[in-house]
């Protein structure tokens, strides 16, 4: 009798575990976004980002790309954010989509996405690659909190101040094509980089 009870309990536990595994596998395969949201709500951000990426592979939809970029970390998830950030910022309708999203204080959603993308490139590739991406991001509009701003405003990037000499050169070359308001932002970035070099 005792063996029968133990056997029944063991079979029940195995069945529950098997069912849970199948359910998890089904969600991971067919509903990765739902699983990502669940993990994110529990604070398991690293796992959530993996499933957001699975969702992006399925759809490349702006909403899915946005969740991955906003909830991912430019340092710990640099490979994913560098890859999918490029897809998002180069996708037609990117700026229009960002206008439907809230930013963070004075920083717009577009600036947040572009900043995280460029920082991810910095961690994943190198400074030159990140600068090139930042340059492409400001081709249509040079905003106050642009990716160049993020390169020097973000702490602990490990960038030597001398490296900004090339960026200052790029910004000075761009100056003639900028509007008066854009020039104000570009000059503010140049001045901040000069200050970094003198510290």
What keyword list fits this structure?
11 helices, elongated, mainly alpha, 199 residues
In summary, what is this structure?
This protein is mostly helical and 199 residues long. It has helices spanning 2-30, 32-41, 45-59, 62-71, 78-90, 94-98, 109-124, 127-137, 147-153, 164-174, 180-198.
Say what oligomer this is: single chain
Helicity range: over 70%
Q: Which parts are unreliable, with pLDDT below 50 for 5 consecutive residues or more?
A: 17-24, 26-30
Strand content: under 5%
| Number of DSSP strand runs | 0
User: So what's the overall shape?
Assistant: elongated
Give a written overview of the molecule.
It is a single chain. This protein has 199 residues and is mainly α. 73% of the residues lie in helices and 0% in strands. The radius of gyration is 23 Å and the shape is elongated. Residues 17-24 and 26-30 have low confidence and may be disordered.
Topology:
Layout: H1 2-30, H2 32-41, H3 45-59, H4 62-71, H5 78-90, H6 94-98, H7 109-124, H8 127-137, H9 147-153, H10 164-174, H11 180-198
Helix pairs in contact: 1-2, 2-3, 3-4, 4-5, 5-7, 7-8, 7-9, 10-11
